[in-house]
Write a structure and sequence with these properties.
The chain is 28% helix and 25% strand. By secondary structure, it is of the alpha/beta class. Strands 1, 4, 5, 6, 8, 9, 10, 11 and 12 form a nine-stranded mixed β-sheet that branches. Strands 2-3 form a two-stranded antiparallel ribbon. The longest helix has 12 residues, at 96-107. The chain starts with 12 loop residues before the first strand and ends in a 21-residue tail after the last helix.
Length: 269
């Protein structure tokens, strides 16, 4: 039988959890600790992101972090039984392409989930990850979209007159839709070729949207609209407060996670 994160065709799906950046929207707290270690009710933010990855069946996870990567490693440790956890330090923010290249030795050749750690929600990825692993041919990329009131803050889906998904705009001043693309993506093994070519062409202006547009233009992108699910960008104090209340109400789950002696369970009163 295939292992976790591996389909019947033998394609392993690994994960990169991108927890880099300076966390300036969460100052002064991020002067002293990593933003993913700030609390959502009884567990830190990173546990909710890792739980989403773990519930999808992925057991090989690379975590990219800034100078506080040691604090993350102290909390996450070697992970749960059967997991492979890798840690990579991003010594200074130099863009998403640079950060992903730091994790590349751990994932290249595999299909992968790229998860930006600010994104916390209720959509479950297990079926999508399973389909990615089972596909005999490279399955392209999967993008998650949801309707937002402020699409200019995100990559935004572009639709033609027939309602077909045809392009992306990166943080447009005048968005053509309100469909924002969230920071959780599934990619096939062609990702690195696309990224290398786009980074060579765009230089310091490169963004993950450039890779996604290549998949779209070649007809290899799937847009999954998840308006029926909760989705929060936990990169601001207000969003952390909202997410903490949702976690307290049982709407968001950090499990499975590495409970240690003395840790309260999320459901504990």
């Amino acid at each position: 039988m295939p292992g976790a994160g591996e389909g019947m065709s033998g394609h392993q799906v690994k994960a990169i959890l991108v927890a880099g950046g300076a966390g300036t929207r969460l100052l002064p707290f991020t002067r002293y600790t990593h933003k993913t270690l700030l609390p959502l009710h009884r567990r830190p933010v990173i546990d909710y992101a890792l739980a989403t990855i773990r519930r999808a069946g992925i057991r090989d996870i690379t975590i990219i972090g800034n100078r506080f990567i040691g604090q993350i490693a102290q909390h996450v440790g070697t992970g749960l039984e059967g997991e492979n956890i890798h840690y990579v330090i991003e010594e200074e923010p130099r863009g998403v392409g640079h950060a992903l290249n730091l994790a590349r030795p751990h994932v290249e050749g595999s299909r992968m989930l790229v998860y930006f750690s600010d994104n916390i929600g209720t959509y479950e990825l297990a079926d999508d990850v399973s389909a990615w692993g089972e596909s005999a041919d490279p399955p392209g990329c999967l993008l998650l979209g949801r309707t937002v009131p402020d699409p200019e803050r995100f990559g935004v889906a572009v639709f033609n007159d027939a309602g077909e998904f045809v392009d992306l705009e990166e943080k447009p001043e005048s968005p053509s839709s309100q469909m924002a693309i969230g920071g959780i993506y599934l990619y096939d093994e062609d990702f690195w070729t696309h990224m290398d070519e786009e980074m060579a062409a765009k230089g310091k202006d490169f963004s993950i949207t450039d890779v996604n547009r290549r998949y779209i233009s070649s007809g290899k992108a799937t847009l999954r609209i998840i308006d029926d699910h909760l989705w929060l960008d936990c990169g601001t104090p207000d969003a952390l407060l909202q997410a903490s209340q949702l976690a307290a109400d049982g709407e968001l789950s950090p499990e499975p996670c590495n409970f240690r002696d003395g840790d309260p369970f999320p459901s504990s009163e």
